[in-house]
What does this fold into?
Amino acid sequence: MRTLKKVGFSLISIILFALLSYVVLDFLVPKSNSSSSENEEIAQQQSRVFLDLVAVGDSLTEGVGDSTQRGGYVPLVADMLRTNPNVKNVQTANYGHAGDTSSQLMNLLEENEEAQADLKEANIITLTVGGNDLIRNFRQVGLNGSVEDFETTIQEYEENLNSIFSLLNQYNDEASIYIYGLYNPYHYYFAEFEGLQAVFDLWNERTVEIAENTDNVTFVEIDSLFNPSDAPTETEVESNSGDSLEDIQDTNHPYLFEDDLFHPNDSGYKVMASALREAIEKELEDTDSLLSMNR
It folds into this structure.
């Protein structure tokens, strides 16, 4: 009888010890790779950011020349960003208005309450501005005007741009702002006007200076994308083929809208969207920026 009690007691002790060992080991030993992967996936999902992108500006933001009439680069960059693993979703609002100068854009920001409300909620603001200021000056002095002929216009633009950034900061001092530089739509056809490119270069240089001295602003360069240094000019095409301007429709600028040879076409807007995407994704790689956008 005592032997049976000893056996029973030993069995109970073994079972209790086994259970205790299991609990301790379960607590101390790391979880399986499967569980770890699930936790990492959950953490990644929680860290993904929702992008609220508000676009303001001129015809390049409205999307003149876009055959789909969806809004130029804005929906394109949204689609591109949705494929980024750090992005949960992208929402956009487009306040582009064809023909607006920098002063007219400033007025829109001061008066349009709907735009103001959207800007306050945005974590990304995009901007195209200055092209119409420059074009008005070209109409006065022609395509062969010198840099000095544009200095007054450039100075007025600089004042307006500073005011625009001040307004945007007033509505939302946490959003990341991306301003496009200008591209020279005349370079392909009128490269013989040597001073023409100098005007666009100076304009972009002044914009870069303001952007670098303003918090949360990034300059997006596109002139070299629209006018790569190795692209043939119309003059070269004509000299090689003997055709006149009317006869070389198939050699139009690959990124310009055929109806006006000024605004981007569908391919041009893809170039703009890709350049903006690259700039935004560079910021998304920054952990601090990602956390800031997630607030």
About this structure: Residues 45 and 88 are 8 Å apart (CA to CA).
